[in-house]
Design goal:
CATH class of the largest domain in chain A: Alpha Beta
CATH topology of the largest domain in chain A: Rossmann fold
Strand order of the largest sheet of chain C: 1-2-3-7-6
Oligomer: heterotetramer
Radius of gyration of chain A: 19 Å
Distance between the termini of chain A: 43 Å
Largest interface: A-B, 51 and 51 residues
Order of helices and strands of chain A: EHEHEHEHHEHEHEEEEHEEHEHEHH
Strand content of chain A: 15-25%
Strand order of the largest sheet of chain A: 3-2-4-5-7-6-12
Number of strands of chain A: 14
CATH architecture of chain C: 3-Layer(aba) Sandwich
Number of domains of chain C: 1
Strand content of chain C: 5-15%
Shape of chain A: globular
Bound molecules: thiamine diphosphate, magnesium ion
Number of helices of chain A: 12
Number of helices of chain C: 11
CATH architecture of the largest domain in chain A: 3-Layer(aba) Sandwich
CATH superfamily of the largest domain in chain A: Thiamin diphosphate (ThDP)-binding fold, Pyr/PP domains
Largest sheet of chain A: 7 strands, mixed
CATH superfamily of chain C: Thiamin diphosphate (ThDP)-binding fold, Pyr/PP domains
Number of domains of chain A: 2
Structural class of chain C: alpha/beta
Order of helices and strands of chain C: HHEHHHEHEEEHEHEHHH
Number of strands of chain C: 7
Structural class of chain A: alpha/beta
CATH class of chain C: Alpha Beta
Radius of gyration of chain C: 19 Å
Chain lengths: 327, 327, 324, 324
Amino acid sequence: MSIKTYAMAIHDVMAEEMRRDKRVFIMGEDVETLGGVFGCTRDLYKEFGTERVRNTPISEAGFVGAGIGAACAGMRPIVELMYMDFTFVAMDQLLNQAAKTRYIFGGNARIPLVIRGQQGIGRGNAATHSQSVETFFMHIPGLKVACPSTPADAAGLLRTAIRDDNPVMFFEHKALYAGKGEVPDDPDFTIPFGKADVKREGTDVTIVANLLYVGRALEAADELAKEGISAEVIDPRTLVPLDMSTITESVKKTGRLVVVHEAHRNAGWGAEIASQVTEEAFPYLDAAPLRLGTAACPLPFNLELENAATPQVADIIKAAKTVLYRE
Amino acid sequence: MSIKTYAMAIHDVMAEEMRRDKRVFIMGEDVETLGGVFGCTRDLYKEFGTERVRNTPISEAGFVGAGIGAACAGMRPIVELMYMDFTFVAMDQLLNQAAKTRYIFGGNARIPLVIRGQQGIGRGNAATHSQSVETFFMHIPGLKVACPSTPADAAGLLRTAIRDDNPVMFFEHKALYAGKGEVPDDPDFTIPFGKADVKREGTDVTIVANLLYVGRALEAADELAKEGISAEVIDPRTLVPLDMSTITESVKKTGRLVVVHEAHRNAGWGAEIASQVTEEAFPYLDAAPLRLGTAACPLPFNLELENAATPQVADIIKAAKTVLYRE
Amino acid sequence: MIEKERARRIYQNMNRIRCFEMKAVSLFESNKLRGSVHLYVGEEAVAATVCSHLSDEDYIASTHRGHGHCIAKGATLDGAMAELMGKATGYCKGRSGSMHIADLSKGNLGANAIVGGGIPIATGAALASKMQNNGRVSVSFFGDGASNEGTFHESLNLAAVWKLPIIFVCENNLYGISVPAWQSTSVKDISVRGAAYGIPGVTVDGNDVEAIDEAFHTAYERARSGEGPTLIECKTYRWLGHWTGDPQPYRTREEVEEWKQKCPIKRYRSKLLEEGLFTAEELEQIEKSAQEEADRAAEFALSSPDPDPASLLDDVFYEGGDAQ
Amino acid sequence: MIEKERARRIYQNMNRIRCFEMKAVSLFESNKLRGSVHLYVGEEAVAATVCSHLSDEDYIASTHRGHGHCIAKGATLDGAMAELMGKATGYCKGRSGSMHIADLSKGNLGANAIVGGGIPIATGAALASKMQNNGRVSVSFFGDGASNEGTFHESLNLAAVWKLPIIFVCENNLYGISVPAWQSTSVKDISVRGAAYGIPGVTVDGNDVEAIDEAFHTAYERARSGEGPTLIECKTYRWLGHWTGDPQPYRTREEVEEWKQKCPIKRYRSKLLEEGLFTAEELEQIEKSAQEEADRAAEFALSSPDPDPASLLDDVFYEGGDAQ
Ligand SMILES: Cc1ncc(C[n+]2csc(CCOP(=O)(O)OP(=O)(O)O)c2C)c(N)n1
Ligand SMILES: Cc1ncc(C[n+]2csc(CCOP(=O)(O)OP(=O)(O)O)c2C)c(N)n1
Ligand SMILES: [Mg+2]
Ligand SMILES: [Mg+2]
């Protein structure tokens, strides 16, 4: 075990995998001398050269598509998007090309491609640089979707992503990069996709959260504990594949569900979880599942407005109490 | 009243609005001499000229963006996308620009812009030309979302869209174009956004559907009636704004909900409806709401596979019986 | 002059494409084949000539008008026709149809129903070849209309700055559906856009096998020697409607007739006879066997089974682990 | 030689921008201002000169590096600084911050945090002007890096085929964040890309007011007379890091120093004195009042209220009906 930041965990796994497999390479904006705007590729070009740690022009559709082509032709590209909001300028390459190619080619293609980058609030980046866009990639089939909330998860899930023969959307969170945690040193440490992590066991209410909101949910659980409410906190870790059984089993035990994410609440992935839980565990539900997410407005620059737009710990506590009829 | 096809209803409203307001114009691929691949702009260039019925290069991000700019500068553009799947190549202009501009400009902009086009199955167009993508535009706030299922709705909603001072995503369905129905002749006939249409009243189960699936839901309701099951069929007509109260009131009455759409089931808008209904009408629910939608694979070309991927009338009947515990 | 074996392949493939497509039209008209089918008739010289330079290891990425490229790159007419008919025996198990047909085993990265969608992908394959230093070359086919998509620009710039072994082949058939190139494209010769990337751009008569051959040869050598990409524009013409039943209000019958006079197959036929490379009998034999192959392909496809609906969810993801 | 009143405005605006930005830096460093703030220091000649030709009716669409354009197009420093600080009194009620600042009342269609995102929007405004035949002109500002985005290509082609009254102004400051233009951009002079659209492309010294002025004047006349767009590349340099705290490993201190010697403000100052258009005292007065204006703007912003959280959901949609 080593103590690492989330950013360093990502950095180190990329370095290790590039050492292990010469087909792995990185491309993206400013990944070379600058080491990425968030430092995830810092100094990698020194070891691996600028062919394998490759600055790109500002042409996201072009280099995401180039990642697909390179993957089809035997490489294993890691494409860094500086902000996952920029998936929007490359959406066709992601949703029509990367996601569909294997299937529509009758299974005659493998696309070992990782698209990674950060998203979310936390740096005052406002409307076009703070969004949480993972739901899109859950809706259109063909891409795996990972969302690590800790340094260890970042390491284990990223290694799985790089070794996976399918395209993976890998969502980091800008406000998590500096956070530290233990990361196994095993160079083959992986976390399987489709395995939720029960971050805290509890009996009264199940709280499902990802990325930044895992921490906020745990904070809420601490507060709830003080009031005698025992919350189980679950991080699905991957949305595709999705470990519904862990979530459903939990709700069968607690009878109550709150899903909280930074993605917009409206038509966000929380609705899918809430719906599936309702379908699968209806007789066990003591209350309607509640969902928290970002409000139905673009993320405003002003910090107070941003806080008002996004779920706060107090909102999670309130939702938990609501499903427990304790309010 | 006149009997018109769905395509002709759309065509005529555009013509009428262009006559009424010289700021209204159309641009898109092949809208001029060809009249659009689906005929919605047929011969309009003869009356309005090729400035106002304007062929574009194949540059969707470019001309969607041009629509935004023209709207900011006093025009009221109608931008035709040949297939709504092509929103993916213009996603940034739609979700980061059109959707957010007014809000992030502090309310100091109006963007009277209609983006319209068809989507869905029905012509053997396979994976990249058959998708139903309306859910995306519900998730990111700032765009209105309309989905007409009849010629009259197409006319009334489109006129509302053109007269609205906000960007509207207007989803037509390729398999509905040839269908006929009565359309009011009133040149000011509009249907307000945010007003669901109860297509058929019933007492046992509520079925919510849009576009092609309104018809299929009605077929299912006919069959169910034969077995003594009274289904209420609701078409929300617009997803933004969304008339939840009509849906929720219906479910309070029936106690059962099935949502069916052609969009992928996973993280589709049905999940949002099911979740909201559960939140708002939990004590009234006699069964878990069920959702039907396209399977988690790209739409295959082969017709049998396409049918297997998409909800069929039999599936709707089965779902209705399931929520009624009649199976 | 093109070497005899390659000349034969070119002439064969032009005929195979033509016969395949005319067969597809007749199947469509008799309701045996459905969907969006974009025909290449009249443009055969481009695919046949370009692909005559390529091995199975070289890559191509194609377009919605992809049968010609697919066949010229080595597909059997059987597998291609079965795919157009959505059969289990098709190249993509009936999932892709005409618009997404692909045969990766021959280096064909697929037709692509998104205009401009394949250009970055071909560029990426060229990047892989460069990184693997394996001498492979990529060809990106696209139309005049596609040259106005952002992906065209981004890809040509990428390929130029990275000096990738790729040739961008623009098939300028004067229209994007109904829109004439003059109305949508700000330059008369799309090849001038090479200047925007500091790469050679050349326009050739796309119905003239030898003109295409010469330009492509130069570009191919350039790509193989590490000097980077070339943009080749082939001026040609689509004889048929954009889709079966296209009323074609955007062009005159005369214009179409005029171009039919410039048939690339007839033209190359005369050339081959003139040069004395083949006898008329030899060429007739090639034409006849192309026709027979197309007929057999239709029978094969017609008698092939549909895919099993139980296979619906197969292949969305590769289920194996790390490929190493 | 530029007319006196316009020369004054240019010199004023260069100073107003410089003082505004240096003030923003100091507020940032004292934690009074947060978020992504991209500074224009060193590039002021471009915005000030270009906008000196424009009226409030003309349009501009700007970039992530947008303060300069915003101010030169007529914004008050008060409203701009308040926006950078997210205050209710800002141009966008504190919702946009630096990266999306806009002032539509002066024809500013907004900064745009998506690289290349504003180019189609400016093009659309030009389309509106052409259709309304109102003589307005649009200017699209963007960087060297942005010239590799697909929207650049699509927009220039659109504007060219439609002969729109728009001028594309590329601010080539030699880098896109850390990536030098030679590494990302396949041509040395981005202006050569004009050839890909059949429009004039010209490269000028972006630190030389008169050079910019001359090129822009020609382009403006061309736009107004219905001849269509022009691409103008202004070679310039960003003095400060891409963001506050940027370690700048990608360039040398010497390079930065060298460019500081080419300060556009100093340069134009000498020119104005040389020409005898203004006295030193007059110029000092301009400089002083720019500084005072910036200081006052900081005070104004600091003492302004935050927006009311209850306004969170206002303005997502316009609530009125048909605007006619
Ligand atoms: C992104 C996108 N936009 C539009 C279309 C619809 N479409 C299909 S083919 C076509 C014309 C393409 O023109 P061109 O590139 O010249 O190729 P051609 O069909 O002439 O061979 C269009 C507009 C599409 N498939 N994808
Ligand atoms: C679509 C998109 N890609 C990437 C970025 C991140 N980004 C912000 S500024 C910038 C550099 C832009 O370079 P250039 O266009 O030369 O403008 P400059 O910053 O040099 O003024 C980048 C890559 C972005 N904001 N949007
Ligand atoms: Mg064409
Ligand atoms: Mg720059």
